[in-house]
Amino acid sequence: MSNALGSRWVRWAVPSMFAAVVGAVLTVTLASPNKASADVVIGGARSISDPVSIAYGANKQGTTTDVHVLAFNDLHGNLEAAGNNIYGHFAGGAAYLAKAIKDKQARYGSQEATVFAGDNIGASPLANGLFFEEPITIATDLMNVDFASVGNHEFDKGSAELLRIQNGGCRPVEGCTAAPYALRGGGTTDVYPGADFQYLAANVVVDATGKSLFPPYATKTFRTDHGNKKLEVGFIGEVLEETPTIVTPTGVAGLTFEDEADTANAIVHDKNAKHVGAWVLVIHQGGQQSGAPALNGCAGNLAGSDIHKIAQRLDPRIKVIVSAHTHNEYRCTVTAGGVTRLVTSAASFGRVLTDITLTLDDKSGDVVQASAQNSIVDNALNPRIDSTTVRQPDPSKEDLAVSGVVGQYVTASAPLANQVIGRIQGDLTRTGSPFGESALGDVIADAQYVATQDAGLGDAQLAFMNPGGIRADLLFGAVSSGGEAPGEVTYGEAFTVQPFGNSLVTKTMTGDMIRRLLQQQFQGCGGTAPAEGRFLQVSSTFSYESAPGATSCAGKIGRMFVNGVLVGPTDSFRVTMNNFLAAGGDGFTVFNEGTDALGGAQDIDALVDYFQANEPGGIAVPALNRIVPKP
Fold it and tell me: Could you give the angle at the alpha carbon of 250 between the alpha carbons of 247 and 253, nearest 5°?
């Protein structure tokens, strides 16, 4: 824990006052201000219309004040509404999210704070990624966001670039390519101004200084409805401790990622934080509903998930958690050790907005009651019936200022984005077989193999691709703003699939290395990845037998073949992967054992070349027969 923890907070003072009244269908009265009754375990809502409210004992003072926390997460540079959808609605996009946020900000006046829980940048579509993540940051500034936790994708380009995103300035080589930049207060500037919101990173420590990369927490001041007294709400920002396992090593060089619960608890115990009455943890870590998901539901109540484990260990003063990372929507409560906490998440890509109501004791500032409501950010006049439904945009749901920003960068990127690079004969999706193989994963692995198979370019015999690097599907009937024909794929669509700009690397690996590498796909088998399985996608030149249910790690992988020939443990092969995997990304540390590394083209270039090489017929949908059951 940084010994400078208490000295690096930021405080926002907001005068004036406003009262909001929120009714509750489900209210549970708890035994004391900080503890739930021993026999109370509160589940999430059981329908999409049920509010969930947690009451923290009797309010002896008798007067309270409501403040609101508006929250979203995992926007990932999605400026355009595009084809994003949820629960039968076309939803999301920066301008539509901005309108939903600003409408609520106008309703609540000074009694609100707006936050997001990481991954605002990174893994972005072309209109944002082409301009180094600056457009979505400008759009977020115009949403009047106060605070944000960092996410793992904030580190894709390293801490120095992330600091530039926060503080402003032009890139040393490319300059300010996205100028002019709109300003929150009006007008424009030709120099990238940085973020008006404050990134928070309590558990990200700079090794050289021992201080957190950004302030660990910030506070916002509100006025009571009675007596005009000041109340301070604290916001702690964190990212998942496992970030180094899912980000390229150069992105997290010189940084240490500390335990989430321990770090947050140290903050609320710090002597410099005694003035804070209520705490909200804004964290880029999350969970998922275990049954059929609902917008405001909580099937399974996050049991066993990463955020559930963190919530169980938090100090009783932290009663509300804004979570993220898993791209799921939920509104849950977690009860552990006699303490009940409200946990929310707002899906991804701006499709959902969370409105949290904190009812604060006017005397102590403590949370007396907490409730939340997730709402869909609609962006169309019509519902989405199925994948063939054509979206009819609804301009009345757009914020004009942010719409102007979106239009600026979509127009600037259009000449490149709308170039048709090839065709597909059917849908190429990320949907995995029972063994984790996907059609789109197969195609990308093939593209990377082809790009490095020639002598001097790697002499590759097979290729692997990480599934987390595949960010969208390619659908036969999808039509982008370029108006291409069914089956045609544009550069912009390809970039959305592979937005990281990774370069290809070819290494020499033995059959034994490859076997141990494949074993690392399974929890407890030598990898360091998070608990969920991450199955490598493989090129057509490689196949193997898989038995996920085997009790031993050795038993999970059967025979392996390269070009139909059985692989022996001492056989040597040239293997291609991207630079993220080459450095052991996603916990696949066996890649580090490879030798004679040779760099190659960028992954997006390899994919474009592969599409062009398959013209005029286009790319067929692979048969998903590269990973087969072990006899």
Answer: 95
Amino acid 14: pLDDT: 30
Distances (CA, A) of 558 to 170, 360, 535: 52, 59, 15
List Cβ neighbours of 405 (8 Å cut-off, separation of 6 or more): 79, 94, 95, 135, 138, 139, 142, 182
Which residues lie closer than 8 Å to 466 by C-beta, 6 or more apart? 534, 536, 537, 577, 578, 580, 581, 585, 586, 588
CA–CA separation, 512 vs 524, rounded Å?
A: 18
Residue type, 227: G
Q: Is the pLDDT of residue 41 over 70?
A: no
Name the domain count of the chain.
2
Eight-state DSSP code of residue 43: -
pLDDT on residue 42: 29
> Which residue did the predictor score with more confidence, 480 or 206?
206
What is the phi/psi pair of residue 629, to 5°? Answer: -65, 145
Q: Which residues form the domain of 585?
A: 421-629
Q: Is residue 229 located within the same domain as residue 356?
A: yes
Same domain, 455 and 341: no
| Residue listed under structure tokens 């029972």 | 434
The pTM for the full model equals 0.85
**C-alpha neighbours within 13 Å on the C-beta side of residue 36:** 21
Phi, psi angle pair for 146, to nearest 5°: -90, -55
Distance CA 138, CA 122 (A): 15
Residue 320 contacts residue 358 (beta carbons within 8 Å): yes
**Residue 426 pLDDT > 80:** yes
